[in-house]
Amino acid sequence: MSDLGISEPKGQALPKPPAIRRFFDSVLISVLIYALIVGLIAYGAYTGAQSMGYNWQWYRVPQFLYRNTEVGFEWGQIPIGLVATIKLSVTAFVLATLLGLFVALLRLSGLVVGTAVAIGFLELIRNIPLLVLLYLFYYVLGPIFGFDRYWASIMTLAVFHSALISEIFRAGINAVPTGQWEAAKSIGMSTAQAYRYIVLPQSVRFMLPPMTGEVVHLIKSSAIVSVIAVAELTTFGRNIISDTYMSFEIWFTIALVYLVVTLILSIGVSYLEKRYAVDQ
Predict the structure, then answer these.
(1) Which of 112, 164, 212, 250 is most buried, with most CB under 10 Å away?
(2) For the residues 142-157, what does the mean pLDDT come to?
(3) In this structure, how many other beta carbons lie within 10 angstroms of the beta carbon of residue 280?
(4) Residue 257 in contact with residue 82, Cβ under 8 Å?
(5) Taking the CB of residue 228, how many other CB atoms lie within 10 A of it?
(6) How many other CB atoms are found less than 10 A from the CB of residue 269?
(7) Is the pLDDT of residue 104 over 80?
(8) SS3 for 68?
(9) pTM of this prediction?
(10) Tell me: the pLDDT tens digits for 177-217?
(11) What is the largest CA-CA distance in the chain?
């Protein structure tokens, strides 16, 4: 009923979006636009390399992906580097998630000291460049606490991304309605039980999209550990280039590998989001 007392018509269909909007929302058109952009980038790189007199050697790339030897099939250096990157990233992400959850709960605890410590940690880590933080862990904290270069890399990525993940946790927890807290308290739950059984499970659907982005961000950030010669995908790529001088071919291949991994992660989490929404 409107302010004039006239009933509004019901059951009317929503207006269709403009034709130009429907055109660009088409999956086929989106794929074609993406392919066009990638093609233009590849063409620009090709013409630039040609003007430099670069000698393309794509036929040599497969040997760094796989090879058949006398003892049978063997993976090349690039897949081996990819596995090392995934192991490094998974370990760092698990530690970052635990530390990020602790910092988020500390900030939401209501304790003056806890909130101050959490905010101080966030401001300190977010305002230090990742490369500088890596040098601090490897050259300063490493000798003190006995970190080798591998664990210095893991700790660097974990601490840096924990600051970002803690904000994701805090936003997800705050997105849960306050009525859920009140309901948990009314049935005698402690704060820890309310977090475990009520708040955190409901906050998952709010945190999945940004956490996916953070996983992708961490995998890409892991490339920086190559500056201290940690064995991972970028380090293997640099070693191959130093032996073969195939800069363009190897970097394009490594970029494609990173792209495939991040796309698989994005598609997988999109499926989880839809599955979680259906279960709700």
Answers:
(1) 250
(2) 91
(3) 7
(4) yes
(5) 18
(6) 17
(7) yes
(8) strand
(9) 0.79
(10) 888 878 888 888 887 888 888 888 888 878 887 888 888 88
(11) 88
In terms of residues, how long is the chain?
280
82 in Cβ contact with 233 (< 8 Å): yes
Question: What helix, strand, coil percent values describe the chain, rounded to 5?
Answer: 80, 5, 20
CA atoms within 13 A on the CB side of 110: 1
Listed range (106-115, 152-161, 164-173, 202-211) with the worst mean pLDDT: 202-211
Q: Amino acid letter at 213?
A: G
Distances (CA, A) of 187 to 129, 176, 200: 46, 18, 18
* Distance from C-alpha of 275 to C-alpha of 280, rounded to nearest angstrom: 9
| The pLDDT of residue 52 | 79
The amino acid occupying position 56 is W
Q: Which of 67-71, 171-175, 248-252, 276-280 is predicted with the least confidence, judged by mean pLDDT? A: 276-280
